[in-house]
Design brief:
By secondary structure, the chain is α+β, with helices and mostly antiparallel strands. A five-stranded antiparallel β-sheet has the order 2-1-5-4-3. Strand 3 and strand 4 form a beta hairpin.
Amino acid sequence: MALQKEKQNVSRRSRFGSLLADWRRLRRVSQMTLAMDAVISQRHLSFIESGRARPSRETVLTITEALDMPLRARNELLDAAGFAAFYPERPLEGAEMDRARESLRRILAHHEPYPAMVLDRSWNILMKNNASKRIISHFLNEAAIAQLSPDGKPNFMRMMFHPNGLKPHVVSWARTAPILIGRLRREAAAYPGSPSKTLLRELLPDAPATFIPGIDDAPLAPTVALELEIGDEVLRLFNTLTTFGTPQDVTLQELRIEMSYPTDNASEALLQGWAE
């Protein structure tokens, strides 16, 4: 029994050390630099990574802070070290998230008549305002949306890239697609096991190689140009992503608010007209 428990402890230390080393390399931080930032000795950090030492809960939290890891990844590292999660992950529809949900509703409502939506870490659409509903329904009926939502959750990226989605109506595809794919690539590279990796495998077969900027290329543009052909008119928008500044909840940290603005007066008039 004691031998089995010791084997489990060794396995756990090995898993923790492997995860820690992966994140350290991902952040391109040396053992010496991380040890200094976490205020521990490099020797102790080396022992932790090699599985020869078991870190305390406080040490794990300090290391994850020094590496600026996402809250979900911090909980995963704590679990690998044998500790309970530190950061809560509460469902957005739960009672504890009433205030957050109300804040999101206000943001979406105040953005009318411009489109806005709330997305989760998998790029699933959780909430959207009336302007977004009007634009999506103009191109896709309920049956088409259901086809693009195999798990019952409308997905922003699938909706954009699928041949039966918005892609055929995007006039700016040559400019819009590289930025969207670039975002997915950076997320996939910045967080091992990110849902963006799954989306990349699904969407890349339909994306020409020229649409895939290298991970180390120049930073992506802060906004995404999107031009949609609507009859004889073109709705020109630019999109931005907003996140919560200092969340202490996994769900809140992973939420993003996609907000669109008209690029020209004609597009603004078109949105205003639809709203009226």
